[in-house]
Amino acid sequence: MKIAEDIYLVGSGQIRLSHFKDCHVYLIDGGEELALIDAGVGLQTEVILNNIRDEGFNEKEIKYLFVTHCHADHAGGCKEIRERTDCKIVATEPTCRLLDSGTDEELGLNVAKRSRIYPEDYVFKHCKADMAIRDWGTVKVGKYQLQAILVPGHSSVSTF
Fold this sequence. Notes:
Elements: E1 2-4, E2 7-11, E3 25-29, E4 34-37, H1 45-54, E5 62-66, H2 72-75, H3 78-85, E6 88-91, H4 93-101, H5 104-107, H6 109-114, E7 131-132, E8 138-141, E9 144-147
C-alpha cells in the first residue's frame, strides 16, 4: 500500500495487511535499491513478501533491512527475510546483540508470553546483524540517504 512517494506499507497487523502480530513494515523505494524498515513477527513472512511483489517490486532487490528495535513484532522475521532476500540487517549495537543472542527476558518475550500476547511456544529466531549503526549514522539506499536517530524509551535498548 503506497503511503507516500517511494514509501510503501507492506506489513501491518493493525490493518490486516499481514499477520495480526506484525508491526508496520515499510518498504523504501530508492530507485535502484530497496530497503525494509522492520521485519514483523516472523510468523507469516511470505505475506509480507507477497505484498512487496504485489506493489511491483522484486524482493531480491532489497539491499537493507533496518531494525528499529528488538521487540518480536519488529524483529522476529529478520532471519527469514534475510534468508529469502539476501539483504543486510542494520541495527544499533545493543539491538545487534539482542538479535544475535538476546534472552526472552531481554527481548521482553517472557512478559509478553505470560500476558498471552505471544503463545508460550513462540520462538524468536536469532540472527546476526550485518551492520551496526550509531546515532546520526547514515546509509545510502539508492537515491536516498537514511539517517538513524536514536529514540530511547520504548524498549530496553535504544531504538531508531
